[in-house]
Amino acid sequence: MEIELPxxxxxVVARKDFRDAMRSRLIIALGVLFVVGxxxxxxxxxxxxxxxxxxxxxxxxxxxxxxASHAVLFIAxxxxxxxxxxxxxxxxxGSIKFLLSTPNTRMDVLVGKVLGxxxxxxxxxxxxxxxxTAVGWIWIGETxxxxxxxxxxxxxxxxxxxxxxxxALSASMRSTTRIVAAAMALFVVFHFAWEYIPASAYITIExxxxxxxxxxxxxxxxxxxAWTVVFDALSPARALxxxxxxxxxxxxxxxxxxxxxxxxxxxxxxxxxxxxxxxWYATNWLGPISLILWSGLxxxxxxxxxxxxxx
Length: 311
What we know:
This is ABC transporter permease. The protein is mainly α.
């Protein structure tokens, strides 16, 4: 099946979506939530996590990274709420036939909905992240412009990725209940279950290959193969974490679940610390590449289902 390219009419659809959100004051509500949430994140990071737990305020790049990472779950959840009815809602109301009247194509509608819903989230997110970062910088008396720009790129592209995924689901299904169920299932997998998948796959393969020669401590403390971090980057949540690592030049770390990291923090001096195989593609740049691929492939998959659908 041939995939058509969007035309300038996609921008018309996007503008209509954006104006509808402005009339419903959705952007204002999201802006207030993001500003308050990110500002509080900056203050908590400095006063509680930094000064109380570690005895000093974090440096500006670390503070900026933390403020960006605090928004991850909120971005994903809000995106589901904003985008799940983007096309399914138009089908239910019958207005999809008006949207698809000449000269709009199905690709125009799909891309327009993605751009419209993304702008609804990206604008207040940018304002909230900027204000929150400024509050944190004022609090510690330092700035980190490059870290801020990387963080802004990361969270807005992450929002775009989720918008593409949810709009693709909305284009693929008629039932909004099924769309929400599928989106929430992906949310749970990406944000809560994924940290166990690459590590479990690696340890299982090692035990199958080495048998009795493999031990849990040797697996944890050894050099992990590069494929484990490539696998890890398949989750948009982990891909964003890798992208945010670029803010502070943190080295790429093995995809260890939380309990393994806790184990290493206690016994790292005895068993050593794990590292990632040193190959050219095993870098934190896997993060932004994965987010961009997720966005593009989701859009293509959504279009193929939407184009074949009988409206």
